[in-house]
Write a structure and sequence with these properties.
The chain contains 3 helices and 3 strands; from the N terminus they run αββαβα. By secondary structure, it is an alpha+beta fold. It has one domain: 2-Layer Sandwich (GMP Synthetase, Chain A, domain 3), CATH 3.30.300.
Length: 106
């Protein structure tokens, strides 16, 4: 169980994800529902499966990099790897209730 303490905590990774905002929508990428999956291995490698609101998004190149940088600042994260997917496509159904409320969709 000692080794478990060397692994980054998922809450910390999620908190880091919440510091990255979509430039077109004033909501963080986590609450926006752009993050499909977060996996943290024993070596401190974080694999993130994510999407964008639109495949032609103007920040398609920089958004995964901004997410990688934010996650790699988390204590005990050795490396973050981002897998950008467009299937399933993003929809407003992915958004948290807080995000929908903020955007007036609830």
């Amino acid at each position: 169980m000692q080794h478990q303490q060397n692994i980054p905590q998922e809450e910390q990774v999620i908190d880091a994800l919440k510091t990255v905002f979509d430039p077109e929508i004033p909501v963080n990428v986590y609450d926006l529902g752009l993050i499909y999956h977060v996996d943290i291995d024993r070596d401190g490698v974080v694999d993130i499966t994510m999407t964008l609101t639109n495949p032609n998004c103007p920040v398609a190149d920089e958004m995964p990099e901004r997410i990688r940088e934010a996650v790699e600042k988390v204590d005990k994260v050795r490396k973050a790897r981002i897998d950008l997917v467009f299937d399933p496509p993003w929809s407003t159904d992915n958004m948290s209730d807080a995000a929908r409320l903020e955007l007036g969709l609830l």
